[in-house]
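Onboarding guide, step 5: your first structure request.
Type a short instruction followed by the sequence, for example:

Predict the 3D structure of this protein.
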Amino acid sequence: MFRSLSQRNYRIWFSGALASNIGTWMQRTAQDWIVLTRLSDGDATALGVVMALQFGPQLVLAPYAGVIADRFPKRRVLLVTQVLMGLLSLALGILVVTGTAQLWHVFVFAGLLGVVSSFDAPARMAFVSEIVGGDLLSNAIALNSAQFNAARLIGPAVAGVLTVAIGPGPVFLANALTFVATIAALLAMRTRDLRPSPPAKRTRGQLREGLRYVAGRPDILSVLAIAFVMSTFGLNFPVFTSTMTTAVFGTDADGFGLVSSLLAVGSLGGALLAARRERARLRVLLVACAGFAVTCGIAALAPTFWFFAIALIPVGLCSISATTTANALVQQASAPEMRGRVMALYTAIFLGGTPLGAPLMGWIAQTAGPRVSLALGGLSGVLAIAAGLAVLARSGEVRLPDAASIVRGIRRRRRPDAAAASAPAVAADDANPEARDQDDPAHDPDDRYRGQADADAGGDIDDPPRPER
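The system replies with structure tokens like these:
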């Protein structure tokens, strides 16, 4: 489960990122709280706007950020982005501490942070493969998710206690200091142990080249479709948890921090389960999306605060299983020289859908109630499955049964004689194994995600690399 930690550079990166993410979750919790209780009089739509501004720049800037991640050393890009993000957190913290912060200040800083994050995210995701190499990539991605959710477990609980005890201002300042940990980790790494990807040459059309590459890969497109639907409508937890705790159950800041931490407990468990798997698989992603729909429905019907808080544990487990698996699937399938651009597009789709979904979910919570908003968010898991399978079916990667074939199957089960009559046809198929076992991606769709990355990473002999298109 923890095999990537055997490498020194990854241990350093893991520790620095953990400290920084704890501070980030502390600030997110305090920021959501002051927007709802001090700056907007409980307006869930305003909270959705903050999320939209923070993640909206991904839609526009992420493709260009991917080109930069492929062209320049990713470690150098991360040093610049981490310094800028730390300065933004410090400036906003000073406004909150001095009592001069207004709602439009939060909007502005959320937008600026979104711009810097657009360049940080693809470089950070692709940098993991340079730290550990392809043989440990899936495990390292899962452990990154585990430390992120461990921070998500610690950060909101600490922020809730500090907000009640001394106010939200010091929480923002503490987050600014935690960026020092990531910067120190980047500087302490042994550069000779890194496995840098070959830099992309500075030529015209690199952005279009990345888009063409993804457009020709239905295996990647299907994961992107699932990620877009889930992130746009389902993964708006700040809206769901804040409105449920305040409007439905009437708790204060420490109650809000508690539910955020319990959500992180499930997320941490899902990430650790993902770390045990040798490689990501499409079927795990589909099952996680279905589980997300069911668990969100249960949480939306919670009769008491404690029932709701406990119900968030399986919600977190299913959501992080889906996101971690999607991330690993995309990275496994991408060629190293294209990984920055592919991950930038993944980031744009995964985070860029928030400006569309967060205000909508906030508006639904404001008008129809938080329970309805949460239930509809869970329904996105079912819609995501349908979107992903539709992409694969359209490309011929899988064959989905139509209504007539489903009805025929039911009739065969009810009439044993019909099943017996069909036995010769089955036997005929068995007699011609070449026709049955051609290179049919529908035979195991998961195999479509074993891309060029496996060859470069020293994948299993029995897992040949997918030929380039």
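Each response can be followed by summary notes, for example: The chain has a mean pLDDT of 79.
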